[in-house]
């Protein structure tokens, strides 16, 4: 079948524009920053705040990760050959930049939870959907390590650049651990829930 490279690029850019417009419509106090994280993690609105930023990152990662090398799910070679190399490179950078932003978000919200007063109940930083987003994020970051796609990451990205310091291999490995640290308690809870469901008559 005929492959229209310009339509593929227009569709990707159109979806990105929708995400950008949505992000721009958010109230300033909800935008990603250390201050908003600290404030919302102590409020009843915490689950909604975390859900919003997790899924904004997840939507961007899913939009661009198919352009990355070495994945089971990827765009067919015959399509990639028709796309400009600069478009593919920019898409790869987008996937990596948004994964890095998600990793920093995981680190920040887990640090807030770790500092909370012990109330006798289990405090969790994310929600049950963060495991799937975290898995996609870690896969992207591992590919970024393998192919050094984290270099010059701040060029042409729509990812929030908060907490952006030196980006090197050590930083990427730190972000991978941050995602794992935040999602690990959920893995245990979901395993218990799965076992409980299996025990139902």
Tally of DSSP helical segments: 7
Distance between the termini: 50 Å
Shape: globular
Q: What is the number of beta strands? A: 0
> Which spans have pLDDT < 50 for at least 5 consecutive residues?
none
Alpha-carbon Rg, integer: 18 Å
Structural class: mainly alpha
Beta-strand proportion: under 5%
Assembly category: single chain
Give the % helix. 55-70%
Short account of what is shown:
The protein is mainly alpha-helical and 201 residues long. The chain has helices at 5-24, 34-40, 46-64, 77-80, 85-114, 130-147, 169-198.
What does the model show?
This protein is an all-alpha fold and 201 residues long. It is built from 7 helices and no strands. The protein has helices at 5-24, 34-40, 46-64, 77-80, 85-114, 130-147, 169-198. Helix 5 (85-114) crosses helix 7 (169-198) and helix 6 runs antiparallel to helix 7 (169-198). The protein is globular, with a radius of gyration of 18 Å. 29% of the residues are buried. The mean pLDDT is 88.
Attribute tags:
201 residues; mainly alpha; 7 helices; 64% helix; globular
SSE order and pairing:
Layout: H1 5-24, H2 34-40, H3 46-64, H4 77-80, H5 85-114, H6 130-147, H7 169-198
Helix pairs in contact: 1-3, 3-5, 3-6, 5-6, 5-7, 6-7
């Amino acid at each position: 079948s005929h492959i229209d490279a310009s339509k593929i690029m227009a569709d990707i850019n159109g979806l990105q524009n929708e995400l950008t417009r949505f992000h721009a419509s958010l109230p300033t106090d909800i935008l990603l920053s250390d201050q908003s994280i600290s404030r919302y993690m102590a409020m009843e609105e915490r689950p909604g705040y975390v859900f919003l930023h997790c899924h904004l990152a997840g939507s961007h990662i899913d939009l661009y990760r198919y352009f990355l090398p070495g994945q089971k799910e990827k765009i067919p070679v015959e399509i990639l050959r028709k796309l400009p190399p600069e478009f593919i490179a920019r898409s790869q950078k987008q996937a990596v930049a948004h994964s890095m932003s998600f990793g920093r978000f995981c680190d920040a919200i887990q640090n807030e939870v770790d500092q909370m007063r012990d109330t006798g109940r289990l405090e969790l930083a994310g929600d049950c959907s963060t495991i799937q987003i975290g898995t996609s994020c870690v896969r992207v970051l591992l590919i970024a390590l393998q192919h050094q796609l984290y270099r010059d990451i701040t060029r042409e990205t729509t990812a929030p650049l908060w907490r952006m310091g030196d980006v090197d291999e050590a930083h990427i490995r730190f972000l991978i651990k941050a995602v794992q640290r935040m999602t690990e308690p959920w893995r245990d809870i979901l395993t218990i829930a799965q076992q409980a469901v299996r025990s139902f008559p």
